[in-house]
From TrEMBL:
Record domain Restriction endonuclease type IV Mrr: where: 45-120
InterPro entries, A to Z: Restrct_endonuc-II-like, Restrct_endonuc_IV_Mrr, tRNA_endonuc-like_dom_sf
Entry-linked Pfam families: Mrr_cat (PF04471)
Name of the featured protein: Restriction endonuclease type IV Mrr domain-containing protein
Biological process according to GO: DNA restriction-modification system
GO MF annotation, one: endonuclease activity
Species assigned in the record: Desulfomonile tiedjei (strain ATCC 49306 / DSM 6799 / DCB-1)
Residues spanning the membrane: none
Domain of life: Bacteria
Length: 305
């Protein structure tokens, strides 16, 4: 094997190790070690080099799963599977290995007869490779985001006009409201810093400059159009001077807003699946697919079902 092929084979073994390490992190089995390039002596006395393996204890017995990695550009032959089967039989029930299961991992596929032989003897067959177009069938490949931020326009040419509807709590307060309005002394503080109050006189909303755009849902509005919209309210109050010694709490039951909107920010993001997914792990017998990706130097996998 030349240097390039050897390097690629090592990288393939390392990827396989990382993938199965990530998978076993999700399993509820203790004492798991996933290791690469191990050596075990079989019952024949022959020592076998193992690409990737993991060992764990179950019912106080050692269990070992042995993975043979074949970084081939063509289908794996029956001969290779038979050779691997011989290694498994030689290692089975040795003190160091215990109960053994085998798993073959390759990039392309398996020749005719290979799958039947492997299935009969309980050897798992997997494909581990970069995704191709067919792998995305009936799955979302690309995500296209368009993020738009809109807000109310507040300029001399297009001011926001608000009209509040008030409800007095008593007949006496209603009379004071009418009298104050008739005298032209009713001053409603409609600046951008206004906050509505609860029945105890405590602030209970954001400033109206923030509260109003959310209440009006600007995102579905077009620019250059004058909108008029009513908002039902209740259990919200403001303080008004009605001629008494102290300002009074008066309930706001609704408002009508006349306004324009403007787009203040727009961004477009396209996430391509092939740039996120490093590889796929596909079971040859069930066609189950797991997508392998990297995040912060950590290998993750996701089974889309």
């Amino acid at each position: 094997m030349d240097a390039d092929l050897y390097s690629q084979a090592i990288e393939y073994e390392q990827l396989t190790q990382a993938v199965y390490q990530a998978i076993w992190k999700t399993k509820d089995i203790g004492n798991i070690t996933v290791t690469r390039n191990g050596r075990f002596k079989g019952r024949s006395g022959v020592e076998h080099q193992i690409d990737v393996f993991w060992k764990y204890e179950k019912d106080e017995q050692i269990q070992t799963i042995i993975i043979e990695c074949k970084n081939y550009s063509s289908n794996l032959t029956l001969e290779k599977v038979r050779n691997f089967f011989g290694v498994l039989k030689d290692l089975e029930n040795t003190p160091e290995v215990g109960s053994v299961r085998g798993l073959l991992v390759t990039k392309v596929g398996y020749q005719s007869g290979t799958a039947d032989f492997a299935k009969f003897y309980g050897i798992g067959l997997k494909l581990l490779r970069k995704p191709i177009e067919a792998d995305w069938k009936e799955r979302i490949k690309n995500l296209h985001f368009e993020i738009v931020a809109k807000s109310l326009v507040s300029t001399p040419e297009h001011p926001i006009e608000l009209k509040l509807f008030l409800r007095a709590s008593t007949k006496e307060q209603a009379a004071r409201l009418q009298a104050t309005e008739a005298e032209g002394k009713l001053k409603i503080p409609l600046g951008p810093n206004l906050k509505f109050l609860d029945l105890n006189g405590e602030e209970c909303t954001d400033e109206i400059g923030w509260w109003l755009p959310q209440a009006l849902n600007c995102l579905d509005k077009e620019e250059g159009v004058l909108y008029e919209e009513a908002i039902k309210m209740g259990d919200l109050y403001i303080r008004l001077d009605l001629g008494g010694p102290e300002p009074e709490l008066v309930e706001v039951i609704g408002l009508v807003a006349k306004y324009y909107v403007e787009t203040i920010a727009f961004s477009e993001t396209i996430i391509h699946g092939q740039e996120i997914v490093e590889a796929i792990l596909k079971d040859h017998f069930t066609d189950d697919v797991e997508f392998v990706k990297y995040r912060n130097d950590e290998t993750l996998f996701h089974n889309p079902g």
